[in-house]
Design brief:
The chain is α+β, with helices and mostly antiparallel strands and 209 residues long. The protein has two domains: 64 residues; 117 residues, Lipocalin. It contains four helices and eight strands. An eight-stranded antiparallel β-barrel has the order 1-2-3-4-5-6-7-8. The model has no long low-confidence stretch (mean pLDDT 78).
């Protein structure tokens, strides 16, 4: 075989070995391209399906994306003043009873002399809490002392009812009252209370504390 024949035969063998390898690489590229196309198409279908499901859920109320509002804080309430609730607040009150007032109320002279004294003035102090009272004064013009004390309540008519702990036989004293600024005004007592009780209790007391 001549040199030309050998060269031609070698070139043909090389060409036959190169073509299949190139085709194999081309096939591999085509397969990868098809896989990418399928993957993209599959991802698109999943996204479409998720969008459709979300839209259906919102339309049917199955998906609640609303954030619940924070609960409202409890409403603040202002304390009710005792007098607005029909009670006299814890307090101290003072007034002065005179001989002239006692005589006008029909208090016996012996009682006036004993309780008010010769100077004609009886300074009084009344301390009230929600359930107790203490009444003290300068009885007889000699020494300041407690005249009465006991319990406090309110009846169905809103009257102040004081029950003495020092005078067990004494009946409970029920008195109508009102508060005007720093004044406590007792206006009426029950019919069973005597004239000295009326003089001591009814009238205007001025608040000191």
């Amino acid at each position: 075989m001549s040199v030309d024949d050998r060269l031609r035969a070698g070139l043909e063998r090389n060409a036959s070995s190169l073509v299949p390898a190139g085709e194999a690489r081309l096939d591999a590229v085509r397969r990868r391209h098809r896989r990418r196309v399928l993957a993209v198409a599959g991802g698109g279908l999943v996204a479409v399906a998720a969008t459709v499901a979300l839209a259906f859920g919102l339309a049917s109320g199955g998906v609640d994306r609303a954030v619940p509002p924070d609960p409202l804080p409890p409403a603040e309430t202002s304390p009710v003043p005792p007098e607005a609730a029909g009670l006299i607040p814890d307090s101290t009150w003072r007034r002065v009873v005179t001989t002239k007032q006692a005589e006008a109320a029909g208090v016996p002279r012996s009682r006036i002399r004993e309780d008010i004294g010769d100077d004609g003035r009886l300074p009084l102090e009344l301390r009230l809490t929600t359930d107790t009272f203490t009444q003290s004064g300068d009885y007889g013009g000699s020494v300041w002392e407690i005249g009465d004390s006991g319990s406090v309540a309110y009846d169905e008519r809103g009257r102040l009812v004081v029950t003495s702990a020092r005078c067990v036989p004494c009946s409970a004293l029920a008195v109508t009252w009102r508060i005007d600024d720093d004044r406590l005004v007792f206006t009426r007592l029950g019919p069973s209370n005597g004239p000295m009780d009326r003089v001591v209790w009814t009238g205007t007391w001025r608040r000191t504390s």
